[in-house]
Amino acid sequence: MAAPRPLRVLCLAGFRQSERGFREKTGALRKALRGRAELVCLSGPHPVVDTAGAGPESGSCPPEEQPRGWWFSEQGADVFSALEEPAVCRGIRPAGSLVAAFTPCFWGH
Fold it and tell me: Which of 12, 39, 67, 95 could bridge 16 with an S-S bond, Cβ 3.0-4.6 Å?
């Protein structure tokens, strides 16, 4: 009998983070799960301005490390605030297409 395939776990990098940075931060977890689960990390589809004011075109970091976001909570600005209820979720459709290839699983009681 063939060995079961490892579980693939979708990991979404947070706002102003990147897939590369997220993978680095989860190195110990990936090691502990080796053979049982594969962490598949994704960056958000939208480039955002980092806290120092450098935009995606500034060249301050390599493209794979540029801060990214999944959607924006204001209509006219590329920002997200977790402290306020968003009036809009601008950019959510392209974000959804990135994760559509994964089958969601939910565990109930």
Answer: 67
